[in-house]
Write a structure and sequence with these properties.
alpha+beta; Pdz3 Domain; SH3 type barrels; six-stranded antiparallel β-sheet; elongated; binds adenosine-5'-triphosphate; GK/Ca_channel_bsu; SH3 domain; PDZ_sf
């Protein structure tokens, strides 16, 4: 400062010198220094003489002021130790806001009264008559901090609908969160084995509520398992009599789109399906699950427009309408959607073009590709091989089109990866009354207009379709992003188209954590309750 004075540079410097040397400014500085040096730690109650040394580290004294509102916590007796522990902290309540009491903490004393040999009811009445500050002596739950910080960002996709209004077992309907299959939920607490706490993604964690835990939902579904589970199916003579032929959709659409043919999806009715099923090589064990679908752990994937969902997989029982829906989607926008061109070892027919209708390949080449696991599905029909390959999926994707693929759910594993990020739609039949009505009416409308025979269904076909659908959903439901009920075809098609457009345009996709973190130990670390689905 003196230097400035020497240079005589400004009036402002002189003025500043005067201000800083004034008495009130000097007093302010001295108060600041005094405050900074003082120790303002709160005065804690003295440690009682009877504490053993080990307890010093783990015991915590917490004082909460009681208002008209409850503390927002529940307690229970730990049956193995007899200790009274905090069972649940309701988010946003006084206990939660204090940040001092946590689930799993053990209550040793309340206002100096020991909790030993007490029943939860006695403690509640003790709390009810206390006024003002209530002091709790607590042993904090082990590793609580670590566990809760790991769980902060846990998201799951719900794989079932839940309506608390229809759940007689929910402890408190007002404190519950309802959801639909496909909703993304942020799990806030997994502490309770029966009721987790969660909120809808994007709603913030301000108002989470109770949802059934994975364990609870699995138990419920297992108890309700339908009688059809082990119902033997009587083979029908008509099964073998039906022969699936390629369908020329020129007759239907008035123009030709390559690949618009019946697929040879495993599980189809008829000879192709049977032969394909007999000759399939992939084990279904790996990907199937006998556990009912509950929740699947997901993470957000932020995609570039060029990098959006491009593979749509349609699955469903034979006859449900997978080909019909695929065909309608394709025709609705042939610039956007495409199907794969299948491979075959049979002779090319006169009107067919290689690489457009089929890739016609020699037997040895097809068999070599089988050994190289190049097929998603393949099978034999009338002595010839037919198959769809991963290469043909890649070709459609390279052409920047959305690839529509139908397959048996046991084969989804071929494309259930971060590379393909498939959107899997399960096409499900409606209830049998609607199935009868819609399929018979459809036959009536179509009759006579189309040279391709419209498929007719018997009562047994309907029952079988429903049974197969139930078992597919039970076994592979965890892989389905969307369940589409195909009752009225126009309604189902609109719903499918909306869902597909939404997913291919979405900036954020919620993908299974497993796709980016395949190590089972890693996923177990992040969420021990949610492993073992895929
Ligand atoms: N919602 C619907 N209402 C009426 N008819 C329908 C409906 N959905 C499909 N169909 C008709 O049912 C028949 C079977 O449909 P589709 O061929 O699409 O079944 P799929 O699931 O592909 O079965 P598969 O794999 O055995 O061929 C077709 O004649 C189709 O037009």
């Amino acid at each position: 400062m003196e230097e400035f004075m020497h240079h005589g540079c400004s009036d402002e410097v002189t003025e500043l010198m005067e201000m800083l040397s004034k008495l009130h400014f000097k007093s302010l500085l001295s108060v600041h220094d005094a405050v900074a040096q003082t120790d303002y730690e709160p005065t804690l109650p003295p440690i009682p003489d009877d504490y053993v040394a080990d307890e010093e580290d783990s015991v915590k004294i917490v004082s909460l002021v009681k208002t008209k509102e409850p503390f927002g916590a529940t307690i229970k007796k730990d049956e193995s130790t007899g200790a009274i522990v905090i069972a649940r902290i309701m988010k946003g309540g006084a206990a939660d806001k204090s940040g001092l009491i946590h689930e799993g903490d053990e209550l040793m004393e309340v206002n100096g009264v020991s909790m030993e040999q007490r029943k939860p009811k006695e403690i509640l009445s003790l709390l009810a008559c206390s006024k003002g500050a209530v002091t709790f002596k607590i042993i904090p739950a082990l590793y609580r901090e670590e566990v809760s910080s790991q769980r902060k960002q846990l998201f799951v996709r719900a794989l079932f609908d839940y309506n608390p209004e229809e759940d007689p077992a929910i402890p408190c309907k007002e404190a519950a969160v309802g959801f639909k299959r496909g909703d993304i939920l942020q799990i806030v607490s997994l502490e309770d084995e029966t009721w987790w706490q969660a909120c809808h993604q994007g709603e913030g964690k301000s108002c989470p509520g109770l949802i059934p835990s994975q364990q609870l939902h699995e138990r419920r579904v297992t108890l309700q398992r339908p009688r059809a589970l082990f119902r033997p199916r009587t083979p029908k003579a008509s099964d073998d009599a039906k022969v699936l032929e390629d369908v020329d959709y020129r007759a239907i659409t008035g123009f030709h789109i390559a690949g618009l043919r019946r697929s040879f999806r495993l599980g189809r009715k008829g000879s192709v399906a049977r032969e394909v099923a007999r000759s399939r090589r992939w084990s279904t064990g790996l990907h199937s699950s006998i556990r009912p679908p509950t929740y699947i752990e997901v993470i957000p994937y932020h995609s570039e427009p060029t990098d959006r969902h491009k593979l749509v997989v349609l699955v469903g029982p034979s006859g449900v309408g997978v080909s019909e829906l695929k065909k309608r989607l394709l025709i609705s926008d042939p610039d956007c959607y495409a199907v794969t061109v299948p491979y075959t070892t049979r002779e090319r027919k006169q009107q067919e073009t290689d690489g457009v209708d089929y890739h016609f390949v020699p037997l040895h080449k097809f068999e070599e590709d089988i050994l190289l696991h190049r097929f998603i599905e393949y099978g034999r029909y009338k002595g010839h091989y037919y198959g769809s390959s991963l290469d043909s999926v890649n070709r459609v994707l390279a052409d920047s089109k959305v690839c529509l693929l139908d397959m048996h759910p046991s084969n989804i594993k071929c494309v259930y990866t971060a590379e393909y990020r498939p959107f899997v739609v399960f096409v499900k039949p409606p209830r049998i009354e609607e199935l009868r009505l819609t399929r018979r009416r459809a036959k009536f409308i179509c009759e006579g207009e189309d040279k391709n025979p419209v498929r007719t269904f018997t009562e047994e076909d309907f029952e079988e379709m429903i049974d197969t659908s139930e078992s597919m959903e039970r076994e592979y439901g965890h892989l389905f992003d969307k369940v589409l009920v195909n009752g009225d075809i126009a309604v189902a098609f609109r719903e499918l188209k909306t869902a597909v457009l939404e997913i291919i345009e979405a900036e954020v996709q919620w993908i299974p954590t497993e796709w980016v973190r395949p190590s089972p130990t890693a996923s177990r670390r992040s969420c021990s309750h949610l492993t073992g689905w895929i």
